[in-house]
Amino acid sequence: MGQDQTKQQIEKGLQLYQSNQTEKALEVWMKVLEKSSDLMGRFRVLGCLVTAHSEMGRYKEMLKFAVVQIDTARELEDADFLLESYLNLARSNEKLCEFHKTISYCKTCLGLPGTRAGAQLGGQVSLSMGNAFLGLSVFQKALESFEKALRYAHNNDDAMLECRVCCSLGSFYAQVKDYEKALFFPCKAAELVNDYGKGWSLKYRAMSQYHMAVAYRLLGHLGSAMECCEESMKIALQHGDRPLQALCLLCFADIHRSRGDLELSQLKLHCLSESIYRSKGLQRELRAHVVRFHECVEETELYCGLCGESIGEKNSRLQALPCSHIFHLRCGPPAGWMGAGRVSLRHSRALLA
User: Fold this and answer.
1) How far apart are CA 89 and CA 266, in angstroms?
2) pLDDT at position 104 over 90
3) Is 104 helix (H, G, I), strand (E, B) or coil?
4) pLDDT for 138-186, tens place per residue?
5) Which of 264 and 183 is assigned the larger pLDDT?
6) 309-314, Cβ contacts within 8 angstroms, sequence gap of 24 or more
7) Buried b (16+ CB within 10 A) or exposed e, 132-168
8) Residues 213-236: pLDDT tens digits?
């Protein structure tokens, strides 16, 4: 496969990936990797594979391609390519929670002479290092790294990098329990997405919404937290972002736990898990969650006594009778109705809250 054909196939894979045909994109890129003799093309396709596997949550595969990319960069004998590949290696270890390795590879990046570290990629290296220090709970060094990354972003008018740093700062302040700042920085990230993100990936919007949801929950603004988390999950489902889907599921559980409606948190988790497995065509896992969802409904008796549909699966207006029977307002009880299904008064209060 020659240089022109390699370039065409890489672009074809990118088009498939951007249209959410991830598996087909991976097939195209893997064929390029197997058949192409163009080192530049191989380096670029390895970068695509690193990014794709990162967003799919396949971090061991991400690491494998990052290692191959370093070997390719050495063959090219280009310091900039070597910097980029070491950064991907640092990010791979960050995702795998190998934080000490992440910091080591970031220091390697910053020590490479004659590269773009001072301009384009230096901020990204500092961001990855900050995330690693945060993972190790070394808060002072984490904040120093984030502030350094933010300076890179401002000096180079890199709004995309600034957005990512603001989200990481949101996580930082959430951990040190300054919840006002934990909300401020993700809100700033959301502003950057609105102002500059027309051509960006929707993952930046999803990321900012998720971090806003976390902060709103910590501040006790549970309605706003739910709204932001639902928006983030919607985008994550559309783009097959499995790691973000998992984070949103945890956030949903925390929101329901904060409300005190523990049964509904289980229902929400099973319902969302069902939609994830359905979108991926994983039938065995899908069936397991459908069964567990209906078991939860039966255990808590959360169903309408008139239409028989479950309550708590989606937003619905409800009505409770003095006897504690509960039903959909749209169904409306007929005169003298005694109801087949029953839910406790505690459950009805949680649902109507």
Assistant:
1) 37
2) yes
3) helix
4) 888 999 999 999 999 999 899 999 999 999 999 999 988 889 999 999 9
5) 183
6) 310/267, 311/343, 311/351, 312/263, 312/264, 312/267, 312/268, 312/351, 313/267, 313/271
7) bbbbeebeeebbebbebbbebbeeeebbbbbbbbbbb
8) 999 999 999 999 999 999 999 998
* Surface-to-core class of residue 209, CB atoms within 10 Å of its CB (0-12 exposed, 13-18 middle, 19+ buried): buried
pLDDT band with cut points at 50, 70 and 90 for residue 352: very low
Angle in degrees, CA 243, 246, 251, rounded to 5: 125
From residue 81, alpha-carbon distances to 57, 167, 179, 263 in Å are: 24, 27, 39, 51
Residue 143: name the closest of 181, 117, 115, 180 by CA. 181
Amino acid at 4: D
* 289 residue type, one letter: H
Residue found under tokens 């902060």 = 215
Give DSSP secondary structure letters for 178-239: -HHHHHHHHHHHHHHHHHHGGGS-THHHHHHHHHHHHHHHHHT-HHHHHHHHHHHHHHHHHT
Query: Can you list the pairs that 107-111 forms with residues at least 24 positions away whose Cβ atoms lie under 8 Å?
Result: 109/83
Task: Check: CB of residue 119 under 8 Å from CB of residue 156.
Answer: yes
Among 2, 28, 32, 30, residue whose Cα is nearest residue 15? 28
Cβ count within 10 A of residue 284: 7
Query: What global pTM score does this model have?
Result: 0.71
Residue 347 pLDDT grade (very low, low, confident, very high; cuts 50, 70, 90) = very low
Greatest alpha-carbon span in the chain: 84
Spatial distance between the Cα atoms of 270 and 259, rounded to a whole number of angstroms = 18
